[in-house]
Amino acid sequence: MADKKKVLMLATTAAMSAQFNINNILILEELGYEVHVAGNFRKGNPIPDKAIRDFYKWVKEHGGKCFQIPSTRKVYDIINNYVALKKIIKLIKTEKYSFIHCHTPIGSVIGRLAAKKTGTPIIYTAHGLHFFKGSPLSSWIVFYPVEKYLSKFTDVMVLINHEDYNLVKKKFHAKRVVIVPGIGIDTKEIARHADSRTRIREELGLKDDDFFLLSVGELSGRKNHETIIKAIHQLDRSDIKYFIAGKGMGKDNEEDELRRLIVDYDLQDRVRLLGFREDVNDLYAAADAVAFPSRREGLGLAGIEAMAAGLPIITSNINGINEYSVNGETGFSYGPEDVNGFADGIEYLADHPDWCVSVGRKNIVRAEKYDYHYANSIMKELYESM
After folding, report:
1. Is residue 271 a contact partner of residue 242, using CB atoms and an 8 Å limit?
2. If we measure between CA atoms, which residue out of 214, 278, 201 comes closest to residue 244?
3. DSSP run (H or E) holding 115
4. What is the pTM of this model?
5. pLDDT of 3-20, one tens digit each?
6. What contacts 80, CB < 8 A, 6 or more positions away?
7. Rounded-to-integer distance, Cα 40 and Cα 75, Å
8. Under 8 Å between Cβ of 224 and 338
């Protein structure tokens, strides 16, 4: 009997594969591949350790294998990332993969260098390039030359927003460039949680007339939750409550800074950090609007999920978020540091519930094109072509 075909799913952290590659693994499994997952299972993961252990177990239950490598998201952590590269090269030579699918900036550098060394075909999904219109000059100086050079060794480069896609198509050297609407969302599953509103609001201690603004995302500088906290402070309205569902991690962990900001502004009764939550769809059902003020997003799953839940969104107006967030139509959008703008938008939403309901209904329709079935069909065709 011939050996089963194998694919390596590679990312800097195991959490990336756990959060964004389940569907891809299932598609590969359906196509007859044995899927191996490599990444850092021990450090740098923005989800609880139990979730990482559960993912490890899930991969094995699906006939795959998991491999620990010491890769980190730090660009200048040369030693650990070099060790990770050597381990991946050795792994490829041992397992003889049909192709590699890599993710994350550091994971993609490791993957493409290893693919070049071993002559292995490779797909790279960029979940939002670090350089984009409005990004710091340092991002262009550090990341652009590396990505452009490594694109020469990339068989397929997958982008999740049109700004990145157009740049790569015009300037880079990948053999094939594909755009896909992220990993997709389960619109039907989100809709099934609509009846959770009363229960969750009671659990959170919200009154019937409280305006519940929600953010979902890790507690990092990139997610920029502090801008909304400052806007809440500026509004000084006891009926507007802002809750953040997410976990801090690593060097970019902003949890202590956010807690300090909440205390300094005396917002303990209006702003709460909920930690990592597994009931995000229930939180959407309980919320009145979702804030998504990121400084950088390849697309931004939470914003699209909120739309699918029938909520208006108030977002930053940067790269991937602009794919679906339209100022005055899906809610409001502002520059990431525009505290005054966000404060005005939040107050308008709080004072115009009928408008929020109307926008939310239209957002449900807008979100349908991001259903995971569409993303899966593109990825299946891509895998078959490899």
Report:
1. yes
2. 214
3. helix 105-118
4. 0.90
5. 789 999 999 999 999 999
6. 70, 71, 72
7. 15
8. no
